[in-house]
Amino acid sequence: MKIKFNPILSVITLISLSCSNDKKNKPAIIENTIIQPQKVSTSELKKFKSVKEMLEDAHDFTLEQGTLNFINSDENNLHIQISKPIVEGDSDKIIDENIKRDIIYVAFQVFAQTSTKNITITSIPIDFKDQTKYYTQYQKTVKVTRDKTEQIMQKEFGSADYSILFDNLNGIQIPNKNFNKLKFQDLDFVYIQLLK
Hints:
By secondary structure, the protein is of the alpha/beta class. It is built from 6 helices and 9 strands.
């Protein structure tokens, strides 16, 4: 019988062991298990009926926190606004990179996990302390099509299979190093390609 690793249970066990009143103060020895991410196949890639459902599941942007807004919720002409917090002292360069990164992340996630054919994404930073305050001077809007992201996938990886952007980690699909390549290493190239 194979026992599944439960990270929450492990943390609780570690906390309870570290808080024990053992007067000898001996360290607890717990076997560490490292879980290796597994590749996600095309058939395993999680799919959603709508972009709204996908975004709600990911919890990266939410209506409640003011970091997500549906400017147009028609799935055939979808326009969303996403916002990540910025803090005082963030440079214009860092803010600009984060805005591009958020657009890339949402665009590729949308086409990977829904049947949407196009989406307009507006990214506007929000104030870390006052989530009703938006910094519209940094706003960027990009209309993205599935065809465009597939062309970028072909250039970057020689494949338009979106499953190569995700790994399975203990039953949860997470962005992997390929996704990070789009968002970090090739950020400017990918963003410029989306604008064409």
